[in-house]
Amino acid sequence: xxxxxxxxxxxxxxxxxxxxxxxxxxxxxxxxxxxxxxxxxxxxxxxxxxxxxxxxxxxxxxxxxxxxxxxxxxxxxxxxxxxxxxxxxxxxxxxxxxxxxxxxxxxxxxxxxxxxxxxxxxxxxxxxxxxxxxxxxxxxxxxxxxxxxxxxxxxxxxxxxxxxxxxxxxxxxxxxxxxxxxxxxxxxxxxxxxxxxxxxxxxxxxxxxxxxxxxxxxxxxxxxxxxxxxxxxxxxxxxxxxxxxxxxxxxxxxxxxxxxxxxxxxxxxxxxxxxxxxxxxxxxxxxxxxxxxxxxxxxxxxxxxxxxxxxxxxxxxxxxxxxxxxxxxxxxxxxxxxxxxxxxxxxxx
Length: 349
Ligand code: NAD
Hints:
Shape: globular
Largest sheet: 7 strands, parallel
Radius of gyration: 20 Å
Structural class: alpha/beta
Number of helices: 12
CATH class of the domain at 2-189 and 224-253: Alpha Beta
Helix content: 40-55%
CATH topology of the domain at 2-189 and 224-253: Rossmann fold
Distance between the termini: 32 Å
Bound molecules: nicotinamide-adenine-dinucleotide
Order of helices and strands: EHEEHEHHHEHEEHEEEHEEHEHHH
Number of strands: 13
CATH architecture of the domain at 2-189 and 224-253: 3-Layer(aba) Sandwich
CATH superfamily of the domain at 2-189 and 224-253: NAD(P)-binding Rossmann-like Domain
């Protein structure tokens, strides 16, 4: 199988490329513009494989996309390229509109033009997976879960742009019969996570002796999923999901931000002890605007229908993640200097 992975130099896209090439023996064609979030070092484990290809292409460039489709003749697309950082969307929404909405439109149109030219048997086998987020559903109260039928209610420019893209992907299935399937996932964490995101930032700030600032009272809840579990889920949905359907992806690992930060501190106290507990570095700062209170995913449809299940729980996954950051300074040290610490605040998205 030959699969185009857009955003393959990012956090989740690189995990998808590694899964395709290393675990499954498929060909991954990484199409990535290499924004601040893209990093080819993340693909070191597979960069020499003949199953891995890289094309530096902006998904807003339709001609370049047409050339990629013509050159590689893929069997499927896994579309992950996006501007993904909520705080950046608050300070500069323009890039989010371009990449997440216009870029997704371009991907759908380039893929559809290519698909229309395929033989009938190949058309039937072709798949386009549009990768999205649970943030399109808005915020939950103390109770309840996001289901595939939960109405969209995005709060941030990021989630609104992803919601728009989801509607486009769905419309391309409804209108043109284009073979689309959509996934909506909760917060990911794990190796190669950009150092401005909550979990790596807490680990690295803790090690550096810097404050661990938390929005508000730290009670916001996120449902955390280990990135390699997500990569496996995405391949399952792309290859086995019913066309025109949506699948929620989540690990049943709800934690408040305070619980996440405290657990990281406890593990660091064990594996890298200092003269005082790391939790003493926690500080509370003013909440961010439009901060959704709680996200929690019901992944029953994906589990029951397609047989996927998260292999890591939060405790096993966070231990692996901390160990990975301790062992891989070569990867994160050069990136740390680029990480924006907007208002010095941690971001969990
Ligand atoms: P990321 O920011 O780490 O990576 C995004 C990648 O897309 C980068 O390599 C970047 O260079 C590339 N890119 C950006 N604009 C591009 C453009 N115009 N053309 C080509 N490439 C471009 O993001 P991530 O965390 O890996 O997220 C990947 C996808 O998964 C996104 O669609 C995101 O919305 C979705 N998602 C993320 C999470 C999460 O917790 N990180 C959860 C659910 C869904």
